[in-house]
Design goal:
This protein has a five-stranded antiparallel sheet, sandwiched between helices. It has 279 residues and is of the alpha+beta class. It folds into three domains: 116 residues, Alpha-Beta Complex (DNA Primase, Chain A), CATH 3.90.580; 51 residues, no CATH class; 84 residues. The chain is built from ten helices and ten strands. Strand 1 and strand 2 form a beta hairpin. The chain is elongated, with a radius of gyration of 26 Å. Helix 8 packs antiparallel against helix 9.
Length: 279
């Protein structure tokens, strides 16, 4: 068995491309390759190395401006070698492992694989992984305070462990704000313990919020005029802005994939990504 998590962590799009001997073309900080899924998407091979951007992370390994294809490192390998992502997955894993040091570094025993699989099952609820929650700005653990008791200053000789609470609407006889001391118990709760419908609504809401955020950045036609660009050479601002937009496109796609995990078919059908390909 291969340690898939470690392969995903260690392998990189550039490492895979170099290992497979795939030609690249650089434009500033952006690296282009032939689109690995172009023929599948359009019926013809991509013959121009200026459409498909090589990503910087395994999860977002490539994105093609021409056919709109995208995928992770495994998709990158399967596309170039014409392999079936399901039937040939072991072969794809082996190639990914070889691209970052050798397959022997990523082999684990059957018992260790089973142990990790059970452990990983606790990190996923309703098809959403912890890392995906964090990508949306959500924490897997929720904390809430339970107020057990409230004490007046006159009732206490020691306030250790109590929270001071000042009431600005109530005054003492000395015209000072009334102060109470609260006995609080903090409880942790898994985000995934929420009812399924509430869980999905929160994930959808945060995903839509992130999608709109990245869309605004990509469609900002004057991003290169942003004040933060003032420290960049004027001749390079526009190309840097386009590189940033490529990154924002990849992040948008990543968040959209999370959204589609919890959205209904009707909600998914309402997504309009036409702007994403308006290059």
């Amino acid at each position: 068995m291969y340690d898939i998590d470690l392969i995903v962590e260690e392998a990189s799009p550039m490492g895979i491309v170099k290992y497979l001997g795939i030609p690249t073309k650089e434009s500033g900080k952006t690296i282009f390759i032939e689109c690995p899924v172009h023929e599948r998407e359009t019926g013809s091979r991509d013959r121009h190395i200026n459409n498909c951007v090589l990503g910087k992370t395994f999860k977002n390994a490539f994105y093609c401006h021409s056919c709109h294809g995208f995928g992770n490192g495994f998709d990158l390998i399967s596309g170039f070698l014409n392999l079936d992502i399901k039937k040939d997955f072991i072969q794809i894993l082996k190639i990914a492992a070889e691209s970052c040091g050798g397959e022997e570094l990523f082999v684990i025993s059957d018992s260790e694989y089973s142990k990790r699989k059970r452990k990983k099952g606790t990190q996923e609820e309703f098809g959403i992984f912890v890392d995906e929650l964090k990508e949306l700005g959500l924490e897997p653990n929720l904390f809430s305070n339970i107020y057990l008791a409230s004490y007046d200053e006159s009732q206490l000789s020691d306030t250790y462990g109590l929270k001071r609470d000042t009431n600005f609407d109530i005054y003492t006889e000395n015209q000072l704000n009334k102060v109470s001391y609260l006995d609080i118990q903090t409880q942790g709760k898994l985000f995934s313990s929420l009812p399924r419908n509430i869980y999905f609504d929160i994930v959808k809401s945060k995903a839509k919020e992130k999608m709109e955020f990245y869309k605004r950045l990509v469609t900002d036609r004057k991003l290169f005029e942003h004040p933060l660009m003032s420290c960049v050479n004027p001749d390079q601002r526009e190309s840097l802005a386009e590189e940033l937009k490529n990154e924002f496109r990849l992040r948008y796609i990543s968040v959209e994939n999370i959204y589609c995990k919890v959205a209904s078919k009707d909600e998914i059908s309402q997504i309009n990504d036409d702007w994403l390909y308006d290059i």
